[in-house]
Amino acid sequence: MDITSLTLKEIKEALDKKDISSYELCLACLKRIKKFNKNIHSFITVREEVVKEAKIADVERKKGSKKPLLGIPFGIKDNFLTKGIKTTSASHVLSDYIPQYDSTVVSKLKSAGALIIGKTNLDAWGHGSSGEHTDYGVTNNPYAKGYVTGGSSSGSAAAVAADFCVAATGSDTGGSNRQPASYCNIVGLKPSYGRVSRYGVIAMASSTDCMGLLTKTVWDSAYILSVIAGYDRLDSTSKEVPVPDYVQEMNKPFKAKIGVPKEFFDGIDSHVSKKVENALSILEKKGHKLVSISLPYVAYAYPIYAVVQTSEVSANLARFDGIRYGNGREYFGDEAKRRIMIGTHSLSSGYADKYYKQAMKGRTLLIKEFEKAYKKIDLIAGPVYPFPAFKHGERETDPLKMYLSDVLTVPANLTGHPSISVPIEFVNGFPTGFQLIAPHFSESRMFKVGLDIEQELQMYKVKPKLW
Amino acid sequence: MVNEYFLPVIGLEIHVELSTNSKMFCACPAKHFGIPPNTQTCPICLGLPGALPSANEKAIKDTILIGLALNCQIARTSKFDRKQYFYPDLPKGYQISQYDEPISVNGRLEVKSQKSKVKDVIRIRRVHIEEDTGKLIHKKVNGENITLVDFNRSGVPLVEIVTEADMHSAQEAKEFAQRLQRIIRYLGVSDCDMEKGSMRLEANISLTKINPKSEIRNPKLPNYKVEVKNINSFRFLERAINYEIKRQTELLKEEVTPRQETRGWSEADNATIAQRYKETEADYRYFPEPDIPPMEFSVSFINKIKISLPELPEEIQDRLRKFYKLPQDYLDVLTKDKRTLEFAEKALKLAVSQKVDPRFVASAIVNQKADLERKSPEKFIKELLDKKKEVVSDEPTLEKWVQEAISESSQAVADYKSGKLEALAPVIGKAMQLSKGRANPVLVKKLLESKLKN
After folding, report:
1. What pLDDT digit, counting tens, does each position of B206-226 carry?
2. Residues of A whose CB is below 8 A from B92
3. Which residue among B47, B54, B290 places its CB closest to the CB of A234?
4. Over the stretch A243-258, which tens digit does the pLDDT of each residue have?
5. A228 assigned to some structural domain
6. Do B287 and A349 touch (CB under 8 A)?
7. How many domains does chain A have?
8. Which one of A283, A460, B12, B241 has the fewest CB atoms closer than 10 angstroms to its CB?
9. A101 touches chain B (CB under 8 A)
10. Between chains, do B285 and A347 touch, taking CB under 8 Å as contact?
């Protein structure tokens, strides 16, 4: 058995029983990365030093350390600042940037004993749904050569799917964790806005950015969330809501009333919707109740998101003005330039009323619509992507076609609700995800229901054949 | 037509750096004057990738306090906004400021009117909080002209106070600014030191045509305005405004509307120099700062700050006037700063308890200000009483000193005669000096007043 294929839960058990060591695990992961990453392009930076750190972790474990993630190799999305480790955000603008400090998520992971095996690829600055907008080589879908992984956490998803690391961090601004998780047969988590600190992650759209995870299973996701969640005095938008033991919460019996919005199935690829319906019927069989609902404002979610997100992007990228980070503004790629221009326009006097302010009003209506729905239901369920994974270059030249990828994931970013993508049956050989959206700070609910699908389908046992 | 004249319409925009311990959005020290460059910085005030601001509660309370002292309405909800513009001293590419929901609005401050005994009310449009920028230092290094950036000042809490264009002369604007400085110093929230840049003045000046028969109090605002920056003393404020009034009057007489522009006061040229001219207003693309949740101030929160509001110079003057029957020019000197006031209050109390005329004590304080720092009020009163024994109240002797003082203080005398009542103090001081402190100051003052009246 290859130890890299184990889930976090299995690895923790094996480490506890001394069946394996962190050193062996990290070495095996590195070996795999060396062999396959040149084709997958999931890492921008690989840290060979991780094996030394793993040895130290093994000594610590022998001494009785109970750190929750001791010696576990993580992939860190390359927009999370890592002290002393180059952080590029997959853009040449920051090709030489070595941060002076760790993002809060990274420092929490480190305190829990986790190791950084490398920094993962992404659509530069988080701008993308396919992993193609990177300056560091387009990420290949481990399940389908020449096909996209989804984005923007493309490298994190591919690395976890390819067993290069046990788990990885991701930032989700409009679906960036759930989308690549869906196309790579893994679990993608976007926690509630304010659940996990944003401090130290290069901001994309500050009001929708959520720091989350890409993991092999729901258990792994729940377990790590308990480590990284919590109030951070450095992030004024993080909330002082107590962090539960999500694994414990997940195992309590719960039968949910699940709302299935018809708008989530409008214009969806019929093969995708069939697999999603299968997953829904599994849940029904397991005792959950399905309720058909309607969320009419979901139709406006993407246009609202496009304005809010690009507006914030245009402000957040202003600091890369060529004065301090070595490379000038000409290093920005087309997608970043596109978003900066759209956002700048949306905020300009004479246009702000029509675009930015109008979008903010729409956002309020969307939030109200979701809150109203949650008075009658416990969770919302639907697909993640409206269509299966596509070929490299297929949508890249048509930004509008590309933006369609986001229609089902952006609502949760605009409302701030937690959401998860759980793998379901493949569509014509391509992985697909099932999306759950829960009320604020009710992550446990989606873990519980997600677990029911996972236990039934056991998709995490289906491994890609790398080349 | 003949009766028409040009009335200056002046508004001020005043920036005050708060003397909080830490900066507005991070834990770096806020005190930056004279500190080696870039030694008080962190990821937040350097605007490094991923850094996020956390608002300084003390600075927000101080801003509310200033708002209350200026009789403003305090907002129950307020928020921060991003003001976007490019400049090398602004590391994020935007300044965190306040746009449409400032902490306080609609205040007022009274200043002495030039023409009548009635006080003029200057309306305060808004008081808001924002962050200061870094500082550019232009230097020649190895024969090359370069610009360096010091980020110690970046993120220091900065309060912006904007008045309505209610002032009509340089003197009035100066009076307003001085009064504001004194109030903020009394609040203890800033040292308002113009030399160190912790108080910065900008004036908007324009002229409007007035028919004296019509209502002067509500003049029509002109369709242009000239903004003057780089004013770092009250004297320059007065000069810059007077210069602008003259410059604009000349243009208007030629029927040329002055250009709407930003000018800078140049000390070397003793003139304002055109700096920036824009066809349209700058578009800062303001939008709500998503990194800081909106603020809500409860009534009890505001009331708590209200209770901490100290007695302000005007109120103190009223009290001292009623209690000790002191004249206005004395009151102005005694309430000039907190330290003088504290000394005076103690000394006046002692004077009453020892049955000494408070006016005599007040006059001694006013005229011997320089010595006060080294003395306790008790010692001061004791010395005063000792001296009083040898106080000269004999009129011919006083007359000699007074006459000499007048001839030696021609400028002050001229000022006094032209209506500047506070110019009498140095003349009294001179007479006191000539008498080696033995002259009865109350009599000296009376004598001077009667002499200069003619």
Report:
1. 999 887 666 555 667 888 999
2. 318-319
3. B54
4. 999 999 999 999 999 9
5. yes
6. no
7. 1
8. A460
9. yes
10. yes
